[in-house]
Amino acid sequence: MSATGQGTAADQASLRSDANWLIRGTALVARTVTRCLARVKISGALDAVPREGPLIIVSNHVSNADGVLVGAWLTPRLGRRIHWLGKREMTEWPLIGPFVLAGSVHPVDRANVDIDVFRLLLRILEAGNVVVVFPEGTRSASGAMQAARDGVAMLALRSGARILPVGVVDTDRFWPRGKVPRPGRRVEMRVGQPFSLADVLPPDLDRRAAKAAATDVIMRRIAALLPARQQGVYGPTEPTEPAGPAPEPGVSARRVR
Q1: Is residue 242 pLDDT above 70, yes or no?
Q2: Which run of H or of E encompasses 56?
Q3: Taking the chain, what is the end-to-end CA distance rounded to the nearest angstrom?
Q4: Which domains does the chain show, CATH number per domain?
Q5: DSSP string of the chain?
Q6: Residue 149 and residue 207: Cα distance in Å, rounded?
């Protein structure tokens, strides 16, 4: 069986978009519990969250609380379900496993992530659905952004999906990596404006250049939502001479095939 979970209940539900009672109820419980444990603030372009069409939600990743904030507060704004990648072990837990699968968490073997995972995500987007991706691939131990992997850039370029940047602030202080939550801490989720790579990349980039440029754009959109201590490698840099004139708004980038 592949890492995509093909042939499982997750694959059967992989193209679903409805926010059924389980999806809505889980989000409600998550909001309630999180507000009991932390002082939560949600800010940004909430009214601009797309309610239809393919969408990639991208976020920095510093804590187990990150996914909770994203799912709990964006689900009602989206009005549809979010699709996730999760550790295969989660789907194999007794009693909990079936609920994880029903919540559109697609099991992945981290030791063997392959092209099948990319194809699964592409298929979900081509059906007009929503996926969440943490481009850094793992939680940052310092709380600051790390260099991203290029998978999300390829996914956005291939699918043409819109991208919704999200910054999660101070979740590492609330729920540090490898530790238990610390009640009473402040956490914040900041939502940026959705955008398409076709509107921000020059049209004449080759495959490799487009992938690198797309990764940089995506990560800097996330970094712009974060305080300086969390911007990490995507924080302000020394100004350099531009390589050429900036593209005019609305100039389309080629999809990479």
Answers
A1: no
A2: strand 55-59
A3: 27
A4: 9-234 (3.40.1130.10)
A5: --TT-TTSHHHHTTT-----HHHHHHHHHHHHHHHHHSEEEEEE-GGG--SSS-EEEEE---STHHHHHHHHHHHHHHTS-EEEEEEHHHHTSTTHHHHHHHTTEEEE-GGG--HHHHHHHHHHHHTT-EEEE-TTSS--SSSS--PPPSHHHHHHHHH--EEEEEEEESHHHHS-TTS---TT-EEEEEE---B-GGGTS-TT--HHHHHHHHHHHHHHHHHTTS-HHHHGGGS-------SSPPPPTTPPPPPP-
A6: 16
Which amino acid appears at position 43 of this protein?
S
* β-sheet bridge partners, residue 40: 187
* Residue 183, phi then psi, degrees to nearest 5: -55, 150
- For the stretch 174-225, pLDDT in tens is 999 889 999 999 999 999 999 999 999 998 899 899 999 999 999 999 999 9
Distance CA 108, CA 101 (A): 12
Q: Which DSSP symbol is given to 195?
A: B
Tokens of 2: 């592949």
3-state secondary structure (DSSP) of residue 57 = strand
Cα(24)–Cα(27) distance, rounded to whole angstroms?
5
Confidence (pLDDT) at 250 = 41
Whether 118 has a pLDDT exceeding 80, the answer reads: yes
Q: Are 222 and 134 in contact, with CB atoms under 8 Å apart?
A: no
Give the tokens for residue 193. 């404006």
CA separation for the pair 58, 134 (Å, rounded)? 6
Per DSSP, 251 falls in state: P
Q: What is the dihedral of CA 97, 105, 25, 28, to 10 degrees?
A: 120
